[in-house]
UniProtKB/TrEMBL annotation:
This is DUF418 domain-containing protein. Pfam families: DUF418 (PF04235). InterPro entries: Bact_Transport_Assoc, DUF418. Residues 238-399 form the DUF418 domain. Keywords: Membrane, Transmembrane, Transmembrane helix. The lineage of its organism: Bacteria, Pseudomonadati, Pseudomonadota, Gammaproteobacteria, Lysobacterales. The chain crosses the membrane at residues 73-90, 110-140, 147-168, 218-238, 258-275, 295-314, 326-347, 359-381. It comes from Lysobacter enzymogenes.
Amino acid sequence: MTASVPELAPVSVPERVAALDALRGLALLGILLSNVAAFAGPLYELHDGIDPALRGSDRGWATFVYVAIRDKAWTLFALLFGMGFAAMLGRAQAGGRGFGAVYLRRSFGLAAIGLVHAWAIWAGDILVTYALCAFALLALRRLSDEAWLALGCALYLAGTGFMLLVAASLTLPGVAQGGARELARAQAERAAEVAAYAHGDYAAAVAQRVHFFFDTTIPGWAVMLPLALGLFLIGAALMRSGTLADPARHRARLRAMLRYGGALGIGLTAASVALEPAPSVAVYTASSVLAQTLHIAGGLPLALAAIAAVALLLEAGARWPLRFAAAGRMALTHYLAQSLVATWLLYGHGLGQWGRWSYSALILAALLLFAAQMAFSGWWLRRFRFGPVEWLWRAFTYGRWPPLRVERGHARRV
């Protein structure tokens, strides 16, 4: 008679690393603020960055979001995804439990959720990209920490390096940098998006989202997949190093991440904004592609600096980052809810507020929404173990309904 292999089960609250949940909550806020302009305007924009037409507080908020948050929040979230993978793998190995089949189902579940989000709710989805990278991450699970880190850095550099090659190619004699035809196509795509989202019914919005997925999201994977997978692997290597689990022991490493990551990230971001504060994405030029590359590249060191800052703050006794932990435990639920609320408020098949709110008003609404999500998270998690979407995802992952309600007398303060 052979012994059965213990099954991997949903992680209990005491096993969670508090810093990870706090960082997820902070990243979730950053993603919401980054997405404000994309919720309220076309994803087929003619320019990225700081809209030169904005003035006053609108321009101030746009500058803050682009400089301090854009390309940092999603980068941080990708690192945290890899860290969560390493934590799950470590628990499975320590307990002698199976991992591959469970994580495969988990990744299929995430892909399904992402496709529903991308096609039925909002076209700017990142979950499908993360799910595809999760499949690759699973295939690489037997590599060493050093191999994870080396491969992660190589993939991240490959993604940014490809963009640099594009920028360099646009400086060569005889290479077209775009013109009237490209601009006309971009304007037509933008007009179609405005018609579908601002004035169309739900069916028109779905058709536009599906078109965007195949026309823009999938081609964009040429850059996004190596970037995201590289970040996953870097995050996994960082988690397995024990840096977050024992910050007191790794204080010197964390301080170096904060110091050097902050300096490098600020330098790259400043160079990007100085070169092109509003790089063209309708008609590519060498300077616009270079500016975007520098901006993306600045996201990784600044995200690492943010991880170090939160870990050092918690190790020093600060408690305020933990206010974001409850929202971080329900990150998937809140990410989807943000898209639902925004599209219902702004799109023509909802309240039809597209184009009627200033940028400052949109930021204020986003902050109020996130404050409500934080309050709801605390209320919910005092009664239930998981967020509603997290619970459904876990049920699919483990093939059974995990207990949802917190046992009476064991409710945690969150």
